[in-house]
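The methods section describes the discrete structure representation at length, but only in general terms. An entry of this sort, consisting of the sequence and the corresponding backbone structure tokens, reads as follows:
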Amino acid sequence: MKPTILVSDIIQGHMLAPFEQLGQCVPIADSNDVADASVVISTAFDNLDADAIARLPVSVRLISNLGAGVDKIDLEAAKRKGIAVTNTPIVADDTADLAFALLLATMRKTSYSEYFLRQNDWATAASIMGVTPRGKTLGIIGAGAIGSAMARRAQAFGLKLCYHGPNQKPGLEQELDIQFEPTLEGLLAKSDVISLHCPLTEDTQHCINAVTLAAMKPGAFIINTGRGPLINEQDLVDALNSGHLAGAGLDVFEYEPQVHPELLNNPHVTLTAHIGGATPECRTAIVKQAIDNAAQYLTTGALNNRVI
């Protein structure tokens, strides 16, 4: 008999097929009607807070998350209930590709120029002046897999590199000639562009706020492909409107899917809709790894890519 799997409510239609090979699939929303589910397949859009985890059947022993970020899962609540959590940390290259694309687009003001070109205003579109990335300093907050991949791309384009995080990485420094900054303020003060790649935690939520934005260089840029709440969006809007920041490239938002209207209307902001891993190759690999994580647990009890 196939095991029962609780699957994210957003996984529907043809997307369910790979998971149905693993077991009988039931939406998480219907978990109250299930007494014997053993695995939950979650996504970045499922809020598995303490209450949601408490409502899961006592038989659940694994949450296999689609994606690397697990900030929507209350890890302490899961631990208390004896539920392990795994993730799929294989989005580094695709997310770094997008982050660097946002850096180039924002610094070169391609969206701003495109807006006028689409209005058949060639003269204005051609007059938009961007900023040359080469020779500028990129400050990376969080030099994990994605941050390191971002640094490698930036090095190829001639940017100077520095990073801040909880752990210094001598191997990365030797590989990429990247400098460690022990304080966030030090990183912000020396960087022409900041790129966010740290996980969302209580310590990092709103790490970019009115105070830290003021510590950035006048005319600097900020890129975020991590998590929206790393930035206080109203403070970001204020810094952009005052002219202190020259632009922002954002793939994630504090209250997504809602986007601050002043970000939508600002021509110096480049926007994408949380598409860091949105390629067929990456999505297929994420699904495969989440299924492999769950299958390994169901067949052997082993936990691949364990978070807790």
Residues 280-300 form the longest helix (21 residues). Residues 208 and 277 are 23 Å apart (CA to CA). The first strand starts at residue 4 and ends at 7.
